[in-house]
Structures are given as structure tokens and as C-alpha cells.
Amino acid sequence: VQLVESGGGSVQAGGSLRLPCATSGFTFGSYAMTWVRQAPGKEREGVARIATGSGNTYYADSVKGRFTISRDYAQNAMYLQMNNLKPEDTAVYYCVRESGGIWGQGTQVTVS
């Protein structure tokens, strides 16, 4: 089982980034998936979640209206589109399979 995030980087406030998460080693369509972020000195925060089947989504209040989570079953991939980024969005972003607690290595997002 492997989760690999990419797409992080440094952007100015108001900018956008799209984070892909490539998955392998399991039946992607059978699991809910989550994006979690960890900022220095702060607790981990689950920012977005997408269910299987219907694809129902959940967003933390801090990102609602700015971030969009999606999944591509054909590509076994999940995405986080982040718009109108703010300095407080600076963190390492992790792709997580909730069941079994499988985490990717993370990708750094820095907003200045």
C-alpha cells in the first residue's frame, strides 16, 4: 500500500495549488480518503474528506469555500485543489487512507 503526494510549493497569498495523491496497492474505490495538514507548533487538522460511492465530501471550516477535494477512480488518485491560499494554510499536507491509518510522506505548502 502506497500513497504519494506531490504538488506542494511556495505561493503568495491569494494563489492556488493542486495537490495530487497517487495511490497503489489497494482497491482505491473501496476506501474513504482524507487530506490532513500539520503546521509547526499546531495540532494536526483534517481539512477535507471524500467518501466512497456517492463521493460525499467534508471540509474543515478553515478551508470551506476555498479547497475542493476530488477523486479519480480510473487513475486511483485523489486531489486537493486549494484556492485563495492564506499564510495560515502553510503546513505539510498528507494524503491519508483512514482505514488502517495509511499516510503518505507529505508535501510542503508555504504561503507568504
Polypeptide structure, described:
- The protein contains no helices and 11 strands.
- It has strands at 2-5, 9-11, 17-24, 33-38, 45-50, 57-59, 67-72, 77-82, 91-97, 102-103, 107-111.
- Strands 2, 4, 5, 6, 9, 10 and 11 form a 7-stranded mixed sheet that branches. Strands 1-3-8-7 form a 4-stranded antiparallel sheet, with no helix packed on it.
- The chain is globular and about 40 Å long.
- The relative contact order is 0.33.
Secondary-structure topology with pairs:
Elements: E1 2-5, E2 9-11, E3 17-24, E4 33-38, E5 45-50, E6 57-59, E7 67-72, E8 77-82, E9 91-97, E10 102-103, E11 107-111
Parallel strand pairs: 2-11
Antiparallel strand pairs: 1-3, 3-8, 4-5, 4-9, 5-6, 7-8, 9-10, 9-11
Brief synopsis:
The chain is mainly beta.
Mean pLDDT: 96
Share of helix, binned: under 10%
Quote the distance from N terminus to C terminus.
34 Å
Low-pLDDT segments: none
Annotation field: number of helices: 0
Approximate strand percentage: over 45%
Total strand count, please? Answer: 11
Keywords for this entry:
112 residues, 7-stranded mixed β-sheet, 11 strands
